[in-house]
Model the fold of this input.
Amino acid sequence: MTKENLKGKSAVVKNLRRKSVFRYALIGQGIIIGVTTGLIIALFRWLLIFADGCRNRLVDYANSGVGPALIVALVMLLLVLVIGWILRKEPESTGSGIPQVEAELLGKKDMNWLSVLVSKILGCALSIGGGLALGREGPSIQIGAMVGKGFARTNKRVLTEERYLMSCGAGAGLSAAFGAPLAGTIFCLEELYRNFSSEVLLSTMAAAASSDFVAAYIIGMEPVFDFRIEYRLPLKYYWFAMILGVVLGLFGSLYNRTIDRMQDFFDRVGTAANALAKKWPGRRRLNPKTGKMDYKGNIAPFAKLAVGLTMAYICFFAYPITLGSGNGLVSRIAEGDLALKALLILLAVKFVFSTASFGTTAPGGIFLPLLVLGAVTGGVYSRLLENLLGIDGKYIAAFVVLAMAGYFAAIVHAPVTGVVLITEMTGDFRSLLGLVMVSLIAFVISERLGTEPIYTQLMNRSSGKRYNVPKQRKSIIDDIVHPGSIMDGKRIMDMGLPLGALIVSVIREEQEFIPDGHTILRGGDVIEVLLREEDLAEVEHIIEEECKKVRL
Done:
């Protein structure tokens, strides 16, 4: 056996041993990230509670007279300026943050973890405090992912490990936000990572559990939706649940398309504002290098926020129940406090206001608002069954829970996460059959209508793709080039990978680098391949034949 082959074999053994220890190291790091994320999200949730209280006091004050109303208007103007300044300083803090995390895991972004973490916390608290119908879950996921990235960068981890740790942080963020460690873990596998990996599963589970423990110790263990389902839906009424799934699939598809159109509208608002600002003499300055007048600054974020917060200000007087994320509404609906007419008005106003709030690109998520919309839809459906068919109104809480899971599945296209999330958030495990059935039906209907998952839609939009772009789910696999195999000593371009599959990273002697087609692989190299899911079987076959089988 040649000296080179011996060296290659030792490299393989070394990397295999490293991979066996790597799993346990990831679990330990996941716990550290989980504890850190739990502390930060607990602070974040406290800020949001404080912001909700301030908003409620502003509403009461604004309705006490003309003078107070004018003062509150000035406060809203100040919020426009402050949040707009945050978005200009850190553009990656816009929206929910989940599309940004997905893009980074795919190698399309490289966010400044500290800047995003700080701006997201402050921007989201101010946006929700100002009355925009946004949630905390997306920001919590992005905050957690940035904690994981910060840990990886500080400790100089390789790119593959950094992505694992970001997934840990994202799961920990969702877990701490909603007290849902299982949902946090499953969300990472189903929506973010989109590829089963034992390393991701175990490390994310450790991070989610430790994060939930810390947040629960500080905030408390009460479920997010604190109401009881006194009466479970009888099996004879499950036909109505199936019909509800169809309705939610249609409604979810409408929601995703409305989000897209609302963003188009706010983009036009921002473009018009910038075009108008360019005409102001004070907004233009001479560029000494080109000799031309350049436009100074970008006021699009301020214009979008001004429209959104003006809508919130109107709701201060007209319909304050629609302000904020609205999680308190779910308990009222489930307990039967609202009549059919009130629910129909709430559904219409909340639908428009929540999609408009997200269109402003203000920091904030759509998880919680869409769950609230699902709850309102379930309440409307229950009241209609009661009025038209005489179905007992005592089942309204059951329909509310089913509708929340189904609406989530239709919009996010993550039915498993939806079922587990609603179960953990309500603390009720008796409705699993109905939750699974409604979620699957809603998911299938939405997908058959050609609706993209909301976060894929948002990510594609940010990268310049439009709504009708074909879906291409991606996976990442890694393996070892064995000494003496066909690819030992050959160029990457000689491997014959299908179009769309790309070796994005090579680890050689614990040093990671980004290769190109001319890079010569060596025995012992660990390769990381980014590929389309439909090419997974073909790529695995090529790796088996060319990177593992030793030539005779």
DSSP finds 18 helices and six strands in the chain. The chain has three domains: 20-219, 235-298+323-462, 475-548. Residues 465-471 have pLDDT under 50 and may be disordered.
